[in-house]
């Protein structure tokens, strides 16, 4: 039995369709942006060598210098959620996924034609690039690793539950917090991970939320027949099960971005974006509201951050 569906592309996300002209923005970035020439001595000395001298994992140099990684200067900086994206190189009629990284303010060309590079930020972008390439190239790269799936589910459920708690203060009743952690874990497994095996989903969600099997049975009965697979449907399910009549999808998205950063919204639906949220916070480069994220996730941020950066099994 197949345990998961094909990985969801970014343009299949509900939020992608709601954000202004993302397809046009990405197409323009590919077709019209200036691309940094990586086959120069200046680039190798000022960027590649500096990365090599840093504490970056060695594989990041391979990601940087790969012919499938394009460092670009768009006419206007890309939206924060698209600073690193994966797409076909339509400019060169390519058929395979390529990585595009907006280097505005990250790799700066000085008056003397040399580069000044923010290495720590570039490292975070390259890790996101690596995750995107693996996600699109190896369908089960993340879903087959139990420790990764449980950790990711735990991280997402904590972040999502905190948003709902911030809006509606549900944690005054401990059972409500347990239920939200469990249901948001299941949503993550169905939506982000695209898992289909119901028994495996329930087992992982129990581990991620830290509840008992008897609690899970009660929560499953309560949520039976409700949508736990799509973001709009999941928010509607929460409104119904928790009797939160004033809750709306727009409010959830607004408070998620307020709490975690304007460039993190796609983490509500897209696995590489969630991994990017974790990486950016762990690397401490202030690409998101890392202090809030650190406070909510604690040791889970450290554990998933390290795993995300140093696991090279799929490279």
Walk me through this protein's architecture.
With 315 residues, this protein is an alpha+beta fold. It has 2 domains: 19-137, no CATH class; 146-310, no CATH class. The protein has helices at residues 14-18, 22-32, 41-53, 59-65, 119-137, 146-168, 174-191, 198-209, 213-223, 231-242, 249-260, 271-283, 290-297, 299-310, and strands at 34-35, 69-73, 84-88, 97-102, 107-109, 115-117. Strand 3 and strand 4 form a beta hairpin. Helix 6 packs across helix 11, helix 7 packs across helix 8 and helix 12 packs across helix 13 (290-297). The chain is elongated and about 65 Å long.
- Secondary-structure-based class equals alpha+beta
How many domains, in number, for the residues? Answer: 2
Strand content: 5-15%
Kindly state the mean pLDDT as a whole number?
A: 95
Write down how many β-strands occur, each being a DSSP E stretch of 2 or more residues. 6
Compressed to H and E, one letter per element, the order equals: HHEHHEEEEEHHHHHHHHHH
First-residue to last-residue Cα separation: 27 Å
Strand order of the largest sheet: 1-2-4-3
Main β sheet profile: 4 strands, mixed
**pLDDT < 50 stretches:** none
Radius of gyration: 20 Å
**Per the principal axes of the C-alpha atoms, what is the gross shape?**
elongated
Topology of helices and strands:
Blueprint: H1 14-18, H2 22-32, E1 34-35, H3 41-53, H4 59-65, E2 69-73, E3 84-88, E4 97-102, E5 107-109, E6 115-117, H5 119-137, H6 146-168, H7 174-191, H8 198-209, H9 213-223, H10 231-242, H11 249-260, H12 271-283, H13 290-297, H14 299-310
Parallel strand pairs: 2-4
Antiparallel strand pairs: 1-2, 3-4, 5-6
């Amino acid at each position: 039995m197949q345990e998961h569906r094909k990985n969801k592309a970014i343009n299949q996300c509900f939020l992608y369709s709601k954000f202004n002209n993302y397809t046009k923005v990405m197409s323009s970035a590919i077709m019209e942006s200036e691309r940094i020439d990586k086959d120069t001595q200046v680039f190798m000395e000022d960027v590649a060598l500096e990365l090599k001298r840093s504490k970056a994992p060695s594989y990041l140099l391979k990601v940087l210098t790969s012919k499938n990684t394009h460092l670009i200067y768009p006419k206007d900086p890309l939206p924060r959620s698209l600073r690193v994206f994966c797409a076909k190189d339509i400019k060169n009629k390519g058929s395979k996924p390529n990585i595009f990284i907006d280097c505005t303010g990250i790799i700066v060309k000085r008056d003397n034609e040399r580069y000044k590079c923010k290495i720590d930020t570039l490292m975070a972008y390259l890790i996101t690039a690596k995750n995107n390439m693996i996600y699109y190239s190896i369908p089960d790269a993340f879903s087959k690793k139990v420790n990764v799936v449980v950790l990711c589910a735990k991280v997402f459920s904590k972040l999502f539950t905190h948003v709902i708690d911030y809006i509606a203060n549900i944690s005054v009743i401990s059972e409500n917090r347990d239920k939200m952690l469990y249901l948001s874990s299941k949503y993550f497994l169905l939506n982000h991970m695209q898992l289909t095996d119901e028994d495996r989903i329930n087992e992982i969600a129990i581990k991620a939320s830290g509840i008992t099997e008897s609690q899970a049975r009660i929560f499953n009965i309560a949520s039976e027949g409700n949508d736990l697979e799509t973001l709009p449907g999941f928010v509607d399910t929460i409104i119904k099960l928790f009797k939160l009549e004033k809750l709306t999808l727009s409010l959830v998205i607004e408070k998620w971005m307020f709490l975690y950063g304007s460039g993190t919204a796609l983490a509500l639906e897209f696995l590489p974006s969630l991994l990017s949220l974790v990486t950016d916070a762990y690397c401490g480069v202030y690409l998101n509201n890392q202090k809030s994220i650190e406070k909510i996730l604690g040791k889970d941020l450290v554990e998933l951050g390290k795993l995300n950066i140093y696991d090279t099994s799929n490279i």
